[in-house]
Amino acid sequence: MTPNHPLLINGKFVETKERLNIINPSTGKVIAEASIASLKEVELAIDGAREAFDKGEWPKLSLSRRKDFISRIARGILDKAGELAKLETENSGKPIKETTFMDIPSAAKTFEYIAHNFEGFLKEEDLTISSEAKAKLVREPMGVVVLIIPWNYPLLIAAWKLASALAAGNTVILKPSSLTPLTALELGKIIQEAGLPKGAVNIINGNGASIGEALCSDKRVDMISFTGSNDSGRQILRYTSKNIKKSIMELGGKSASLIFSDVDIDIAVNSSLCSIFLNQGQMCTAMSRIFVQDKIYDKFINNFVAKTQGIKLGLADNYETQMGPLISDAQRKKVIAYIEKAKREGANLLCGGNIPPAAELKNGYFFAPTVLSEVNPHSHIFKEEVFGPVVIINKFSDAEQAEALANSSDFGLASCIWTKDIDFAERLSRKINAGVIWINTYGMFYDQLPYGGFKQSGFGKELGKEGFLEYTRLKNVIIDQAPDSKPLVNYWYGLSS
To answer: Which residue ranges make up each domain of the chain?
Structure first.
């Protein structure tokens, strides 16, 4: 009998009649069932979160008490790290090495970082404006916050959003992707064991098309934080326009890596492989466009293709696996369609582009890592996010051309610059229209540093002090200090003579 994973609503675990089969992308087999929220459960979750914020204890707790609860969640994740890593791998297809050593410990560290720093972030600021007035700048929680997370980093992105939203004093409705709800629903058990007041955290699983409008348009919800596709982001913004509310949008990317001729080619190649094929390329920060200076282009691309062909595909639960399956058959078909269109538009297929023939992989959603060259900048695959293990490698001649290529995208999430000339790299970084620039590295996320993009990659930040403050509202309290307690406004219309 497959286990059922219930929802968490207003302090209670709720099983619903409607359930969704959860598929292991490595095998195509059902591994669990997850309860599905209807509009009834959405209403209960919003009611519970609203009541908990307006009348409950969570927003009123002392910061030290709130810190204790956030720390307990971090410890709960670490206590169940092995179980959560296995579950994340089975549900998402992420290789067990990644979930064990990256995703799960990083999720715990995010809660730890927020627990140890948020009190300082909330410190009131006193300002003396003039001899007549002083002011206090006060940070308050937004209220009820809906967190909508994607399927590519289910627990980690939940941690990014939830730790800050909770520590700021908000009550939360967390909606995971219906493809990968299992670790988020398990997080609900950790939260219950940590003893948080009822309604502080509600976790509901459901299809966005069915419950998205009810969640995002309701005037009882004060804020939406969304990570996902641009199409879904646009739809959410349409919903929120019915009752205006703050939103954070972390959307897609078509990130560019610029590799200059003075680099160590082996280091640049090995690092670039990671920048596109980690998590099967299913990353919004994936360096899906790699531009190499013409002097080293042939050597780089030959080395890159050879190492790409050596990447070990395998079942995600095998520690020797370097690349697992895509999330679903639908995602694989989307990737294939992009590659076929790219070839019709003149791209040169150097390797991959096929479903691997190995017998042990036949039931999963595997796809070979793919390298394309000579890709026309006007082609669809050059401009649009594929979200799979597909990379474009083109050449450039000088820094001016490299800058133009990097910025020739509607997206502006991230970029890499590879060169031994750090001063040059820093100058170039100021010209790249992206929210995150890595110099001689890739994918280094730190809880202390804000993360977010420009242009069609969205707005708002996650992580760091700046990401935390997104989940607060800033209040300006002005205090009159006029002599004799007679403010200037007292004289505007004059006193009777």
So the answer is: 4-251+457-477, 256-439
Read off the pTM.
0.96
**Any idea what DSSP says for residue 4?**
E
From 41, 186, 250, 385, active-site residue: 250
Which pLDDT tens digit goes with each residue over 265-314?
999 999 999 999 999 999 999 999 999 999 999 999 999 999 999 999 99
CA distance 484 to 319: 75
Q: Helix/strand/coil (H, E, C) string of 169-198?
A: CCEEEEECCCCCCHHHHHHHHHHHHHCCCC
- Residue 284 annotated in active site: yes
CB atoms within 10 A of CB 430: 7
| CATH architecture, domain 4-251+457-477 | 3-Layer(aba) Sandwich (3.40)
Q: Which CATH architecture has domain 256-439?
A: 3-Layer(aba) Sandwich (3.40)
Angle between helices 182-194 and 154-167 (to 10 degrees): 40
- Give me the catalytic one of 112, 284, 385, 416: 284
Residues of the chain by 3-state class (helix, strand, coil), percent to 5: 40, 20, 35
Residue 366's pLDDT band, with cuts at 50, 70 and 90, is very high
β-strand pairing of 19-24 with 144-148: unpaired
The HSE-up count of residue 319 (CA atoms within 13 Å, CB side) is 3
Which residues share a beta bridge with 33?
A: 4, 21
Catalytic site includes residue 274: no
- Report d(CA 353, CA 331) in Å as an integer: 14
